[in-house]
Write a structure and sequence with these properties.
The chain is of the alpha+beta class and 136 residues long. The chain contains five helices and three strands, in the order H-H-E-H-H-E-E-H. Strand 2 (113-119) and strand 3 (124-130) form a beta hairpin.
Amino acid sequence: MKKFIPYFLIFVLTFSLLGAYQSAQASVDVWQQLAPKAQKVDSSLQAILDNSAPGDMLTVIVTLDKQADLSQVNGADRAARLQGVIQALQATANGTQGRLTGLLNTYRSQGLVDSFTPLWVFNGFSVTATVEVINT
């Protein structure tokens, strides 16, 4: 029994440190997701934006960079895999859309956004907003 205790303590310490590393790594991953990236606008939309008057409202589809990794979804049968896909898509959307939802709500209170709909199927939004907000 005395030989068992040191091995058990080493085992517990190793997994405790590994858990702290994974938590720190998760924090870095979230920070990288929130870091601003280069603006990516379709060229035909950019032409419309360039020719629109300030204050004009347009409806656009916004696709977020972070998308669900569906290659990791497993299941015993088709129904289980489908449920896993839905859960993965919704979890990705729930984990990444909050910041933009808050920003869009702020713009809506200022009259710059007419409406927006969060979409989990591809992790994005349908947004009806002024040209300035869309450019932002």
